[in-house]
Amino acid sequence: MKETKILTKDLNLYYGQKQALKQIAIDIPANKVTAFIGPSGCGKSTFLRVLNRMNDLIDNVKITGEVLIEDVNIYEKNIDVVNLRKKIGMVFQKSNLFPKTIYENLVYGPKINGIRNKKVLDEIVERTLTQAALLDEVKDRLNDPGLSLSGGQQQRLCIARALAVEPEIILMDEPASALDPISTAKIEELIHELKSKYTIVIVTHNMQQAARVSDQTAFFYLGELIEYDKTTKIFTNPAKKQTEDYVTGRFG
Amino acid sequence: MLDITKKTKDIQGFIFINVIRALFFILALLLILLLGKIVIEGASKFNIEFIFSSPTNNMTSGGIGPAIFGTLAVTFIMIIFAVPLGVFSAIYLNEYAKDTFWTRIIRTAVNNLAGVPSIVFGLFGLGFFILFVGRGLDNVLKTGLLFGQPCLLWASATLAVLVLPVVIVSTLEALNSVPKSHRDASYGLGATKWQTIKYVVLPQARPGILTGTILAISRGAGETAPILFLGAAFFLPTLPVTDICIGDYCIPMINPMQQFMYLAYHIFILATQSSDPSKTMPIQYGSTLILITLTFLLNITAIIFRYRFRKLLGKTK
Questions:
Q1: Using CA atoms, how far apart are residues B271 and B274, in angstroms rounded to an integer?
Q2: Domains of chain A, earliest start first
Q3: How far is A92 from chain B (nearest CA, A)?
Q4: Nearest CA to CA, how far is B208 from chain A (Å)?
């Protein structure tokens, strides 16, 4: 029996008057990779940002319904957003390293959490670089600017940076969409490695990628969750016509 | 068949580019004439003695030391007023304030303030700082006539108000140029708003803020009109300096309650109220050259900062 990590009930999101998410109910299992697919503007990225309350930063967004992470509603008044985001790491579409060194990028999260001990920070850097399979490539140049790395390395460094605050969940918003096939393969391999320790939610435009990396797949269309099931089922025998049309490339 | 060897005639473009060229040369020529004249006429005065000594013989000889000192002192106190206020206002407007009717009014007001003629700021300084704040302080503190008169403090405060919009606008631009994705990265790692501003936004915006601030300062240092009524003196035998003593140990400090000489005002006086133009003319050119050199140095510093800023930004985008 799988363990539920994230559960949403009757989730609605409005940008001003416009409703962007309609009655989303989903349960995302722990230590699995869950992919969100769907055409542009279908709400999948918006929904991803609901899960760590990134939408709080945008004016004029209204959210109703519940998001339960380990049975705690994260939209409850007593929830501390800052601590919530420490628990839920995020990797963005374009690598957004700070214009600092590789080392400084990695220790940014731990440092704002009050870790000052150089030895502890060094250990975090080594651990996260190992986890992101980047240690061999950058171990001699930790004091080089993060932006001197290649695009794929930068994105893996972003993943390592997210791991440095020891999250339980990692949200990835099209993490490989700007990368070449080899870098993409490395990211996918990494996702595969990470899922034993973390719950991963990934938004992707690339259906082959969803099929390759995920255990569960959710198909979004026009703000609604159309179908959510095991990835193999979604791609081989979807229950809904719309899902079939999308995964077979008939629209989208 | 399209003949690809036939030259396309672009007569409008030809005329346009040459008119622009001509205008550019006229502009460059004017600038060279103006600066050249000042440099040639002022060069004889451009020496250490002129810079440090006081005017003598009814300003027909001697140097301009007190005027340079006054300019630096006023500018220094102006920085203390204007920079923190301007930078923090901009941080508030850009990072914290929501986009409401009132914040839009404030933004518009800041932009309009930058276009107000400087003499208006002078009158404002006289009316607000000296007559209202100064006299008010005197009444409350029973200090007689200490604050309610023209002096260095109020001149600095007025210039600070004058350059405030420039500082705010350039800081806003610098803050705006920090990519949103960097803020998202910081929030995503569990940083608070202040941590994000302090560790991500401000380090990247700092060169831009410094550039704008320096340009604002050089503008303030060159102004004459606002300080006309605010304590700029025709001639003063002593510097606006008082010794602050702790026991036997004394250090000279700028006394903000005194009047002062000011470079831009000094040039104005020499040009309009000279007792002997044939003798004051070289001094006037010398003073102008030194004022231009001062603002030029400030602008060069700003350009260097901006260059480094662009390089940094070029890498991150």
A1: 6
A2: 4-247 (3.40.50.300)
A3: 8
A4: 15
Whether the per-residue pLDDT at A1 is higher than 60: the answer is no
Look at chain A and count its residues: 252
Spell out the residues 6+ positions from residue B277 whose beta carbon is closer than 8 angstroms to its own. Answer: none
Q: State ipTM.
A: 0.87
What letter does residue B246 receive in the DSSP assignment?
E
Question: Does A147 contact B315 at a Cβ distance shorter than 8 Å?
Answer: yes
Residue B232 DSSP symbol: B
Which A-chain residues 82-101 have CB contacts (< 8 A) with chain B?
82-86, 89-90, 92, 94, 96-99
HEC-encoded secondary structure of chain A: CCCEEEEEEEEEEEECCEEEEEEEEEEEECCCEEEEECCCCCCHHHHHHHCCCHHHHCCCEEEEEEEEECCEECCCCCCCHHHHHHHEEEECCCCCCCCCEHHHHHHHHHHHCCCCCHHHHHHHHHHHHHHCCCHHHHCCCCCCEHHHCCHHHHHHHHHHHHHCCCCCEEEEECCCCCCCHHHHHHHHHHHHHHCCCCEEEEECCCHHHHHHHCCEEEEEECCEEEEEEEHHHHHHCCCCHHHHHHHCCCCC
Q: Which residue has the higher pLDDT, B148 or A185?
A: A185
Contact: B189, A99; criterion CB under 8 Å: no
| Residue A113 CA to its chain's centroid (Å) | 21
Write the pLDDT tens digit of every residue in A123-158.
999 999 988 888 888 989 998 888 889 888 999 999
Helix-, strand-, coil-residue percentages of chain B, each rounded to 5: 70, 5, 25
Share of chain A above pLDDT 70, in %: 98
Answer whether A190's CB lies under 8 Å from A158's CB.
Answer: no
Q: Can you tell me the distance from the alpha carbon of A114 to that of A94, in angstroms, rounded to the nearest whole number?
A: 28
Q: Which CATH class is domain B46-316?
A: mainly alpha
Q: What residue segments make up the domains of chain B, in order of their start?
A: 46-316
Q: Which residues of chain B have pLDDT under 50?
A: 315-317
pTM of the model: 0.80
